[in-house]
User: Fold this.
Amino acid sequence: MADLTQKVVREIFNYKNGRLFWKKIQTPNQVKVGDRAGWLENHGYRRVLIYGKCYLEHHIIFLWHHGYLPNKVDHINRRKNNHIDNLREATQSQNMMNTTKRKNTTSQYKGVYYNKGRARWVASITLNGKLKHLGYFLTEAEAALFYNKAAAEMFGDYAHLNNIGGD
Assistant:
């Protein structure tokens, strides 16, 4: 099978509310027309098999709507919601900008950690694989606000900002 096209995808699947359903079966006894396409993997993303090749469901939904298959598809709200309004093309760097905070950090906020030696909160941000120090702060919230300002300037629409005290 050559490159997957929008025409092929639209012949095989129906799209409804962020989900793909079989419209045309590729092999006998595989599934029934109308069944939800694909399977859920351990990491929570759905995969679909098209002519012997695996694809992420959200990539196929993007192709179904936009006519091309980008290298990365970003979930705008960071949840595995495959509704077309929640999907956008992204670079790897943009995809990483839209992540939540790491689980193994001392802070409740993204881009913030506590430096015991200085007894201060530190704000930092990564762009294109390079870490940039933003400063030392007395409070965790102050550091998070400074991160938010830098992220909004550097990442634009892809910035995932911290929610600080109901901001």
Summary: Residues 140-155 form the longest helix (16 residues). Strands lie at 13-16, 19-22, 39-40, 46-50, 53-56, 72-75, 87-90, 112-115, 120-127, 130-137. The domain at 99-158 is CATH 3.30.730.10 (GCC-box Binding Domain).
